[in-house]
């Protein structure tokens, strides 16, 4: 718990630090943008309010007489305008934009001419957008202005060019504006940043608090508490993370259980092999040992009989080993069905023909019903053949002489039902649930010195399970038993 707390604490500090950096960055961008917008707005308003000042100066000032500049008269009037409005700078330009005369503080003018393009633009089409022109007092700097064309008899003699914010005015304005914004920004900005920081830190704390619970649960799961799960409430990304962990934990636990089951199957297989192979091996060993010890006292017929019984034992042993491994693979889900479409009628007829000689020897009648109409199913043909063989083997084994075995096909909606019925003694009701267990028959295990391994019905059950279906059993004492299962019908 301490480790998870420290981890959560470190995450809280990191997130808080990152949030503070982002908040300060955004605040800086916000204040810079606000200052720029405020300055641009001021320039637009200043130009709009003083747009006609150049026109007023032109109406009072007649700087040209018969196309000749009157410097003394111009100086007098321009100085008067400066006295009335000291925030402006007045320039008299010739038609090419060259500065002929000006009134500016300290005579600090560095340019000889200004660009006429913004001046013509201002005169032709002034709107509520600041138009900037050259500042004669500093190269490369532009300011808002007012301008008026001076004409005589339709001829352009020059321009009155008025800078609306002199350098001194700008300096004083910047100091006042900066002081005002600084005070306003310091108070409101500081309040905003502190409030945002508190809200952000609180939100981060709530997030990391939930993460702390998740980390604690993950630690418990890591330490072996497989039942540890995160409590999930409704909504939110954290809850989605908790749900994902819970699902992952369930999957891991399920995989562990599967591994345990496979390990149990492996141990059971080893136990079955070591125990159940002992009897046939002992039988084989006994006959061979007898042949060796008594070879001088046995007739040829006796030797042949012993060898035949030993050979039969090896065949039973081989069959047992094969079925043991087949069943173990089915139980471990290592066998995957290779499904295809085929006619179940043809398969059942072929199998019935293979058993014809065997049933005749036991004087058993085998018949097929419902085979007139062809039924196509979708399954693994080799595995279904194995199912039918095991069911018929079982029916032959428990059907007495003059008994009957019936193979029947029934159509059920989108499925086909296959039935194998015998007229044997039947199975006691209390034993039905054990029929599909290994080695079980009736109320006892099959002895391994008979022709059966006791694994046939267990294999049937597992094969049908991997086909997503099941085996059904109906039995009545003294009348017989019916095994049935269904397969999906395939449409051509």
Q: Which helices and strands occur, and which strands form pairs?
A:
Layout: H1 2-49, H2 53-60, E1 64-65, E2 68-69, H3 71-84, E3 89-93, E4 99-103, H4 117-124, E5 132-134, E6 142-152, E7 155-163, H5 167-222, H6 237-276, H7 278-293, H8 300-331, E8 340-343, H9 344-354, H10 356-361, E9 365-369, E10 376-379, H11 381-398, E11 404-412, E12 415-422, E13 440-441, E14 444-445, H12 456-465, E15 472-476, E16 480-488
Parallel strand pairs: 9-11
Antiparallel strand pairs: 1-2, 3-4, 3-7, 5-6, 6-7, 8-10, 11-12, 12-16, 13-14, 15-16
Helix pairs in contact: 1-5, 5-6, 6-8, 7-8, 8-12, 11-12
Keywords for this entry:
Beta-Lactamase; Helix Hairpins; 12 helices; 492 residues; five-stranded mixed beta sheet; five-stranded antiparallel beta sheet; disordered N terminus; alpha+beta
Folded structure, characterized:
By secondary structure, the protein is of the alpha+beta class. The chain starts with a helix and ends with a strand. The protein has helices at 2-49, 53-60, 71-84, 117-124, 167-222, 237-276, 278-293, 300-331, 344-354, 356-361, 381-398, 456-465, and strands at 64-65, 68-69, 89-93, 99-103, 132-134, 142-152, 155-163, 340-343, 365-369, 376-379, 404-412, 415-422, 440-441, 444-445, 472-476, 480-488. Helix 1 runs antiparallel to helix 5 (167-222). It has four domains: 2-45 and 173-218; 51-163, 2-Layer Sandwich (Beta-Lactamase), CATH 3.30.450.20; 240-330, Helix Hairpins (Orthogonal Bundle); 338-488, Heat Shock Protein 90, CATH 3.30.565. The longest helix has 56 residues, at 167-222.
């Amino acid at each position: 718990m301490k480790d998870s707390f420290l981890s959560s604490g470190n995450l809280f500090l990191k997130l808080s630090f990152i949030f503070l950096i982002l908040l300060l960055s955004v605040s800086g961008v916000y204040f810079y943008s606000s200052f720029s917008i405020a300055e641009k707005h001021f320039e637009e308003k200043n130009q709009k309010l003083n747009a006609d000042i150049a026109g007023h100066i032109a109406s009072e000032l007649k700087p040209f007489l018969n196309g000749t500049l009157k410097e003394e008269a111009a100086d007098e009037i321009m100085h008067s305008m400066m006295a009335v409005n000291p925030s402006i700078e007045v320039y008299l330009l010739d038609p090419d934009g060259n500065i002929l005369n000006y009134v500016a503080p300290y005579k600090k003018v560095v340019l000889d001419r200004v660009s006429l393009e913004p001046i013509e633009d201002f005169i032709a089409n002034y709107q509520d957008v600041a138009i900037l022109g050259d500042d004669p007092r500093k190269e490369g700097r532009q300011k808002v202005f007012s301008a008026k064309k001076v004409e005589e008899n339709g001829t352009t003699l020059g321009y009155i060019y008025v800078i609306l914010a002199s350098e001194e005015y700008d300096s004083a304005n910047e100091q006042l504006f900066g002081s005002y914004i600084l005070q306003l920004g310091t108070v409101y900005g500081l309040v905003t940043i502190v409030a945002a920081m508190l809200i952000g830190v609180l939100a981060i704390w709530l997030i990391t608090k939930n993460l702390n619970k998740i980390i604690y649960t993950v630690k418990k799961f890591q330490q072996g508490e497989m039942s540890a799960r995160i409590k999930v409430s409704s909504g939110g990304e954290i809850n989605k993370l908790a749900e994902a962990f819970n699902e992952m934990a369930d999957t891991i636990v399920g995989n562990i259980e599967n591994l345990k089951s496979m390990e149990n199957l492996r141990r059971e297989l080893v136990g079955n092999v070591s125990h159940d192979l002992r009897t046939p091996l002992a039988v084989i060993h006994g006959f061979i040992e007898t042949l060796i010890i008594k070879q001088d006292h046995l007739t040829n017929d006796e030797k042949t009989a012993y060898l035949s019984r030993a050979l039969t034992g090896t065949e039973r042993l081989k069959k047992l080993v094969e079925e043991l491994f087949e069943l173990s693979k089915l139980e471990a889900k290592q066998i995957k069905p290779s499904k295809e479409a085929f006619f179940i009628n043809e398969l059942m007829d072929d199998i019935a023909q293979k058993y014809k000689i065997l049933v005749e020897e036991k004087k058993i009648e085998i018949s097929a019903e419902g085979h007139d109409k062809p039924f196509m199913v979708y399954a693994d043909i080799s595995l279904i053949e194995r199912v039918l063989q095991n069911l018929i083997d079982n029916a032959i084994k428990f059907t007495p002489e003059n008994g009957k075995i019936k193979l029947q096909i029934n159509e059920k909606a989108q499925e086909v039902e296959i039935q194998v019925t015998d007229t044997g003694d039947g199975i006691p009701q209390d034993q039905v649930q054990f029929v599909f267990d290994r080695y079980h028959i009736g109320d006892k295990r099959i002895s391994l010195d008979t022709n059966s391994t006791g694994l046939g019905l267990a294999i049937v059950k597992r094969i049908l399970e991997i086909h997503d279906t099941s085996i059904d059993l109906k039995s009545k004492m003294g009348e017989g038993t019916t095994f049935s299962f269904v397969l999906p019908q395939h449409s051509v």
